[in-house]
Amino acid sequence: MSTTALGVHHDYEPGMVERARWALADARVMTRRYLLQLIRIPTVLFFSLIQPVMFVLLFRYVFGGAIHTAGVNYAEYMLPGAIAQTASFASFGTAIGLAYDLGRGLIDRVRSMPAARFAVLAGRLSSDVVRSLAVVLVLVAVGYGVGFRFDNGAGPAILMILLSVLFGLAICTIAAFVGLALKDPEAVQSFGLVWLFPLTFVSGAFVPVATMPGWLQAIARPNPVTLVVDVMRSLAYGGPIAAHLLESLAWIVGILLVFAPLAVRAFKRAS
Amino acid sequence: MDGVDHAAIVARGIVKRFEETVALDGLDLEVPRGSVLGLLGPNGSGKTTLVRVLTTLTRPDEGSAAVEGHDVVHQAAAVRRRIGLAGQFSAVDDHLTGYENLEMAGRLYHLDRQTAARRAHELLERFQLTDAASRPAKGYSGGMRRRLDLAASLVAQPSVLFLDEPTTGLDPRSRLDLWGVIRDLVRDGTTLLLTTQYLEEADQLADSIVVIDHGRVIAKGTAPELKSRVGGDVLTGTVASNADLERAREALAPLGVGEAQEDPVTNELRLPVGSMGSRALLEAVRLLDNEGIEVLDLAINRPSLDDVFLALTGHAASNAPATPQKGRRAKRRERAAAGSEAR
Question: From CA A95, how far away is CA B22, in angstroms rounded?
Fold first, then answer.
C-alpha cells in the first residue's frame, strides 16, 4: 500500500459504507458550492426574489379585483398558487446552472476526480431546495402584508410549505434532465419558458378552473399544479385534503421516479 | 498489461468514433513513469479525445488503456484517485474565490477538512496567487485562471498529470510563466502527459514527443530525433512584400530538398535544404538577387517541429483545418470560451 504525504491511500479500495459516506460528503461540498454561487451573484438572488414578489403584487392588485373566489379573499386564494409557481420557476436555475457547468468543463473536472459521480446533480438539487424554501418564506411574508393568513394552525402551514418545496424539487428534477440533455444555456432558458408558463398558468393556481372553457378545464384539472395548489389551500385555510393529496403525491413521486433516472443517465452521458 | 511495469500510462489500439468521424483510430501509447510526454497534433487530431479516454471521461469503443496499472474502464475509480486533469478551458468556478476553488477540489479528492485547507494555502503560495486568494476567480487574468486550474489538478498530489493544451489562449508572457511552473512540477517525478498544438511547447517541456494526426500516431521520438527526420537544415527568409513571396519561392526552388512552407502574414518562407550548410545561404542570396527580390532576413536554421510536422503529414500543423473530429463538446466549449471573451 502506498500512502502519499497527504494521507491519501492510493491503493486503498473503500467499501460500500465508506463509499456512501463519501458520496454524501461530496454532495454536501457541491451543495455548498451552489449556495455560495447564489450569494455571490446578487443579481440572481435579486431576480429570484423580485419576480415572485412582483407576481404576488400584480395578481393581488391588478387582476385580483376581477377574479371571484367563493368564500375566501383573493390574497388567500392566490398565494398558494404563487408559491407553487415560484417553486416550479426555481427549476430555471437548475437547468441553466447545469448546462453552464457542462459547457465550462466543471462537470468533466469533477468526473475526473474520485468524487461520487452523482454529487454534482445531488448538490445542485439540494441547493435548489434550500433556495426554494428561502423564497417561499419571503413570499409568505409578503402574502401576510397583502392579506393572506394561515387560518388552520402552524402544523398545516408547515406542511403546506414543505409540499410546495417537494413539488418544486420534482420540477427541478425534470429541469436537470432538460439542462443536461439540451446542454446549451440559452436553449435551456427558452425551453423553460415554453413549458413552465403553460404548466403554471393553465391550472388553478391563480383562477378557479371552473371559469375556463371546457376543453381547457380538461387540461387544467389533472394538472399537478392544480392538484398541489388545492391541497396547499386546504392546508392554509381549511377544506378537504385527502383526495387531492394522494393525487398530488402520486404526481410528485411519479415525476421523481421517471426523471431522476433520466437526469442521472443524461449526466453520465453528457460530455 | 503486457507487463510494462515502468510505464505510468499504456494505451493499446484505442478506437473512438463520434457518429461518422473516427477521433482515435487504433492509437498506441506508452509513457514511462516520471517522464513528460508531449502529445502533438493539430486541432481535431484526437488529442483531447485521447486525454478524455485516459482520464476515464470517455469509454473507448475498442482497445484498452491503463494508468498506473489500473484499467481506465474497469478500474476507473482507482485511476481517478491517482490522476490530475487540467483541460483546455479552465474549469474553475468564477463565483468562488481562489481559495474556495482549491479547498473544494481538495474535498472532492477526499482530503479531510484541515488537509484540504492547508493544501489550498500551499498551492496558492506556490502558484503566486496568495494575494488573490480571497477574490472571486471571475476577476482573475487568463494566466491566473490557468494557474488556479493547474493548482486544482494538483491538490491530491497525483502521480500522473494530464494537461490538455495548458497554454492555449495565453499571452506569451503568461505562457512562459506557466512553462516554468510545469518544469518545476515534473522535477518532483510526476508523470506528465501534455497535449499541445505549439511545437515549441513540446520541444521545451517534453522528454519525448508523439505526433498524432487523424487519431493515429504518425511519429514519435525526442525533439532532436524528430527534427532529423526533416533531413537537414532549413533555409528561412523574410521578404519585404507579400507579392514577392511566390517569386522568392520559385527562385529558391532549385535549392530545396522538400516542400517550401509560406506564411503570408509574416511574409516568411521556410525551405528544407538538406546538408548544404552555409553554401545554401550564399546560393539563396545569389538567386534572390538575380530576381531583384528584396529580403529582410535570411538564415540557415536547424529544423523546427513545424518543419517536422510538414514533412510527416504534408500539411502544416498550424494551418490544418479544424475537422469535425473534435466532437461536439469541444466545439461547444470553444463557443463558450469565445462568448466569455466577448463579454
Answer: 31
More confident residue, A7 or A65: A65
Q: Which residue of B has its CA nearest to A13?
A: B78
B232 confidence band (pLDDT: 50, 70, 90) = confident
Question: Does residue B81 sit at the A interface (CB-CB below 8 Å)?
Answer: yes
Q: Which residues of B24-63 are buried (b: 16+ CB within 10 A; e: fewer)?
A: bbebebbbebebbbbbbbbbbbbbbbbbbbbbbbbebeeb
Residue B41 clears pLDDT 90, i.e. is over it? no
Q: Which domains does chain B have, with CATH numbers?
A: 7-227 (3.40.50.300), 231-302 (3.30.70.980)
| Residue type for position A175 | A
Structure ipTM: 0.84
Does residue B42 carry a pLDDT above 90?
no
- Cα gap B297→A102, rounded to integer Å: 48
Give backbone dihedrals phi and psi of B209, rounded to 5 degrees, phi first: -125, 135
pLDDT at residue A200 is higher than 90: yes
Query: Is B80 near chain A, with CB under 8 Å?
Result: yes
Looking at chain A, the whole-number percentage of residues with pLDDT higher than 70 is 95
- Residue B31 grid coordinates: 509513457
- Within its chain, how far is the Cα of B153 from the centroid? 17
Q: Do A105 and B332 touch (CB under 8 A)?
A: no
Q: Domain locations in chain A?
A: 16-269
CA B41 to chain centre: 7
Q: Which residues face B269 on adjacent strands?
A: B237, B262
pTM greater than 0.90 (yes/no): no
